[in-house]
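Below is how a single chain appears once it has passed through the pipeline. First comes the sequence as given, then the structure the pipeline wrote out for it. We keep one example in the README because the format questions we get most often are answered faster by looking than by reading.
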Amino acid sequence: MKFIRYLPVFGISVLCLCSALAHGDLHERILEVSDQIEATPDSAYLYFYRGKLRCQHEQFDLSLEDMRVAKGLGYQEIQLQHFCALANFQLQKYRPALRLIESLLDADPHNVTALKLKAKILHAQGDFSAAAETHHLVIDHAIRTFPENYLDAAQALLDNGGNEAVLLALEALDQGITDLGPVLTLVQKKKEIYLNEGDFPEALKEQTKIIETSERKEVSFFRAAEIALLLDDSELAREYLVKSRKAIFALPNNIRNTGAMHLLDQQTRIFLTQLNTPPNEVH
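Resulting structure:
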């Protein structure tokens, strides 16, 4: 049985708008700093600052040019190495990026921002084992750690392959759940791994945890129904589909009448019909 997936586009549109606004603001700031450089052409800091802004504005070649001028004028702050490494990384010049970031870490071995960038560079180079080790260093040395640190470590372990790759990735995610609590993205990643491995019972266990922690449950119930169908458990799938439709009808009108909810409701009705449960009897 094929399942129809849907993606909400509203959040993506907002992110794109925010990104456009941010880049517009950066462009204005770059122009302002350029005017200041014309007035003070021997300011190492102004060249560094413009190079930083250009890096954030994804003008990586221009960023490196400014950083070279700043260094030539005597700017020695550690941030210069970081942004040079970042710009090289974004330009896929991984060897100079790694050389720069390792030089930074020689002076400041517990610099979490530098360790994160080093892990990304190693991953891009295909050195997944070293990337995973570096992600664990990020976790060990961070004052406050975040879910993405564990997700990145788990992905590097999976990409590294080997007989224990899945086990080690799951252990990294479990460590994150122990440290941070049942964060949704960590539990979802565990479910994804189990699904990819064909371990549907364990995937369903993780999905039930998602249901428990979700404020809105209509989608979570539907995902559980999908897994139940993979388990050939029609009765359990029917139960979750009924719960999904009930959750949809419990939503406020303005939410229930969105395109995403109409699509979800349509899919639950299709599945229920296939399972010989008349949709109109659900609510």
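Residues 214-283 form one domain.

See the next section for the split statistics.
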